[in-house]
Recover the amino acids of this structure.
């Protein structure tokens, strides 16, 4: 049975846009998934990434904007371009344009990397 990466990627993006990113992580990431911010050291393992994502979500005081501008797939790789504009609980504001690159295996994300200007 063939896995349609475009359908899976669209589902994940829809969950993120509806504020259900952790549900998307639980549903679409492999147990050995690796996530990486730019050139920072990668976070390895679904549970470690869930903890990292939870901490990030809990640091947000207000969501001003989360926009998906474009997405594409090519074989087992998907790409999406986002704008994030968030007020954080520490009083700072995070506003960035980023590209997420996801590598899929057997219908699950095994590697995701975010590219943006810090």
């Amino acid at each position: 049975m063939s896995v349609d990466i475009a359908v899976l990627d669209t589902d994940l993006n829809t969950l993120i846009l509806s504020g259900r990113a952790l549900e998307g992580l639980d549903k679409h990431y492999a147990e050995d998934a690796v996530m990486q911010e730019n050139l920072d050291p990668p976070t390895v393992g679904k549970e470690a990434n869930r903890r990292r994502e939870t901490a990030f979500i809990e640091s947000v005081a207000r969501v001003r904007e989360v926009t998906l501008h474009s997405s594409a797939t090519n074989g087992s790789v998907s790409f999406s371009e986002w704008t994030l504009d968030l007020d954080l609980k520490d009083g700072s504001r995070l506003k960035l344009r980023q590209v997420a690159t996801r590598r899929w295996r057997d219908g699950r994300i095994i590697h995701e990397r975010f590219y943006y200007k810090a």
Remarks:
- The domain at 5-116 is CATH 3.10.450.50 (Nuclear Transport Factor 2; Chain: A,).
